[in-house]
């Protein structure tokens, strides 16, 4: 395959500067952050309104968000994330005509996935009871889950559209739509929950309407003729090569689910503690803030994925590596800022969610753990973005299993229950897994040979099946062994 190998000639190497790369990064990350914050804030607003209804309502919404939706959200987002790799590399290679086909193919897959996962919402109460959660909390959460099913199908449409637009850096209209959607959500919650006193039904209705308004607006934007090169109308080609697309989608889903379910595991373990309602309420406040800051670092995740996939698709390995350095350092600086804010306000931020003094005091005690998590998560999502851009989803999934589920969760359970450190012990143990994963991914990124990644993408263009073969875990096990041999 020597004829397919790429050598980045001096004339092909972009004269990148930190300022130049930063402008490209912020052109993607800035709008992506606004979109992520706006869309996540829909859930943030719902939790805030539920918290003022009562402790049980707050716990029910929290358990729904972190356990039921946390489970299905990871799968849905992962199934849509294959688009991030394929569209990004297609844009870099100048194959814009494939983007619309990829989008429709992703819609087919996420739509089927949504149908298959709907029973998780319908059977939420039995599932939570099986997980030995508080009965009153499980009963109310089950009712709320049925109310928010329409939101789930909105996710199936929304995630692929986001990846389609982000890969082309056409994100400002999506940003405006998301901000308007958030404004509508606040007004709807105020009207339905506060004024009409519809309780959790009003909160669910507000979320359903807000999500579908955004999806409808973005679909109109895509099909209205603004993308003549990448959207040429509906095509039966969307149903071709579905199995190969599903393989990459599953690899993406595994990577993201293992990440998101890690936090779900925290909520579940906390639910086994004495006085679970207070424990769940306190940690949910911290995790909601952590997730809010993650929406900012998610913008850098998207920027890393788009920049790396574009540069690799265009055959520029040095530019891809330079992009990684710039986006990691930028995200790290933002993470340090957020960490300092949390440490300085750890006795105040719980008041955003509740006026119950016991909950405020319990959440304040977790401030240091929250700050440490925010710092680590300023790096980790960016490394995941690099992995998606390069098509390494299954590789990262293997690392997630080892660090999170073979080390972090057992350590958290041991400290929380055996040593009776309760919530603090559970969280500290799981931080150990996060530290190890971050260290391993940084090591892998530093050792990666980016020219080989470009060669593999070029080979894939001549043989479309190669990208799916690369997702086999055996290949990555061999790569890990080879990396360790080089140390």
From TrEMBL:
Predominant location: membrane
Example of a GO cellular component annotation carried by this entry: membrane
InterPro entries cross-referenced by the UniProt entry: MATE_euk, MATE_fam
Entry keyword Transport: yes
GO molecular function, one term: antiporter activity
Membrane topology: Multi-pass membrane protein
CDD domains xrefs: MATE_eukaryotic
Presence of keyword Transport: yes
Gene Ontology BP term (one): xenobiotic detoxification by transmembrane export across the plasma membrane
Residue ranges of the TM segments: 26-51, 107-132, 171-193, 205-228, 248-273, 285-304, 324-345, 366-386, 392-415, 427-446, 466-484
Location relative to the cell: Membrane
Keywords from the UniProt entry: Membrane, Transmembrane, Transmembrane helix, Transport
Family, as annotated: Belongs to the multi antimicrobial extrusion (MATE) (TC 2.A.66.1) family.
Name under which the protein is recorded: Protein DETOXIFICATION
């Amino acid at each position: 395959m020597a004829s397919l190998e790429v050598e980045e000639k001096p004339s092909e190497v972009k004269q990148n500067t930190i300022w130049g790369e930063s402008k490209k990064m912020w052109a993607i990350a800035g709008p992506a952050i606004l979109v992520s914050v706006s869309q996540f804030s829909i859930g943030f607003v719902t939790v805030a309104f539920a918290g003022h209804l009562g402790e049980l309502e707050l716990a029910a919404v929290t358990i729904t968000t972190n356990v039921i939706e946390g489970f299905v959200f990871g799968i849905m987002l992962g199934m849509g994330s294959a688009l991030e790799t394929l569209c990004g590399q297609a844009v870099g290679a100048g194959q814009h005509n494939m983007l619309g086909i990829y989008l429709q193919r992703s819609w087919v897959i996420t739509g089927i996935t949504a149908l298959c996962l709907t029973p998780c919402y319908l059977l939420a109460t039995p599932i939570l009871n099986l997980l030995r959660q508080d009965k009153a909390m499980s009963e109310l959460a089950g009712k709320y889950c049925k109310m928010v099913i329409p939101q789930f199908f909105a996710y199936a449409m929304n995630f692929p559209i986001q990846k389609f637009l982000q890969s082309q850096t056409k994100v400002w209209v999506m940003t405006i739509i998301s901000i308007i959607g958030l404004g509508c959500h606040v007004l709807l919650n105020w009207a339905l929950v506060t004024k009409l006193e519809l309780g959790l039904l009003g909160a669910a209705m507000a979320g359903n309407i807000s999500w579908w308004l955004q999806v409808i607006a973005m679909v109109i934007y895509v099909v209205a003729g603004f993308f003549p090169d990448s959207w040429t109308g509906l095509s039966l080609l969307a149903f071709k090569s579905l199995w190969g697309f599903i393989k990459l989608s599953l690899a993406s889903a595994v990577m993201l689910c293992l990440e998101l379910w890690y936090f779900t595991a925290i909520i579940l373990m906390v639910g086994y503690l004495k006085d679970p309602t207070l424990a769940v309420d306190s940690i949910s406040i911290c995790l909601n803030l952590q997730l809010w800051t993650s929406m900012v670092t998610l913008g850098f995740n998207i920027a890393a994925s788009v920049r790396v996939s574009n540069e690799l698709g265009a055959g520029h390995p040095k530019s891809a590596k330079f992009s990684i350095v710039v986006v990691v350092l930028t995200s790290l600086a933002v993470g340090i800022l957020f960490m300092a804010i949390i440490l300085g306000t750890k006795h105040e931020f719980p008041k955003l969610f509740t006026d119950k003094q016991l909950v405020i005091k319990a959440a304040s005690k977790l401030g240091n753990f929250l700050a440490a998590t925010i710092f680590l998560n300023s790096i980790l999502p960016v490394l995941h973005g690099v992995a998606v851009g390069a098509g390494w989803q299954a590789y990262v999934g293997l690392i997630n299993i080892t660090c999170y589920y073979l080390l972090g969760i057992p350590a958290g359970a041991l400290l929380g229950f055996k040593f009776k450190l309760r919530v603090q012990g559970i969280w500290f143990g799981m931080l150990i897994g996060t530290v190890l994963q971050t260290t391993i991914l940084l090591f892998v990124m530093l050792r990666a040979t980016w020219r080989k990644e470009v060669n593999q993408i070029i080979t894939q263009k001549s043989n479309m099946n190669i990208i799916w073969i690369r997702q086999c875990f055996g290949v990555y096990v061999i790569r890990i062994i080879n990396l360790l041999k080089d140390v």
